[in-house]
Input
Amino acid sequence: MKLDVRGVEEGQPIPDKFAFGVFSEQDHMSFGPNRNPEMVWDDVPEGTKSFVVMMFDPDVPSVADDVNQEGKTVSKELPRVDFFHWLLVDIPANISRVPEGEDSDGVIPKGKDYGPAALGVRGVNNYTQFLAGNPDMAGTYAGYDGPCPPWNDEIMHHYHFEVHALDVESLDLQGEFDGNDVREAMAGHVLASARVTGIYTLNPNLRS
Output
């Protein structure tokens, strides 16, 4: 399979328009346009019955104690975990494109709805956990919410945009399913996959 993430080049910085958080000299971070990028795929294998689209960041700190804290840094030595930013499953086999802004256009405090959407079924992303302690933002976040890595992190973050062709029409996932649920349900059903990886940081020392 081939995947084109329009506006995101392999190994290059992700444009601000696709970010949940953008750099701010005054406040470290301000809300970004948070639009999902257009994704187009082809060379689909025979027998494909549905697609899964996901985006995740494998560079998220496993311990959040120092995240976005003045006078502290998130050490590059800290173990990292996956943070899912986008989960869209049960995309019909006749679909080969997610338009820009289709699944997100702006930051929505307290999140977007999970479940059936225009092009598939939305899963719950990890902003649900990350913002749980913020009374103005806490909620269930589904669909696409873009990059917003800690502004005091010593490492550049990588964002993997993926599409997977499956041999089943549905993963039969319901409710507030997450990235691990999707990976478990996909196991043994993936006919082909494609990935584009972009990078992003809010750390001024890394931005230059």
Residues 179-186 form the longest helix (8 residues).
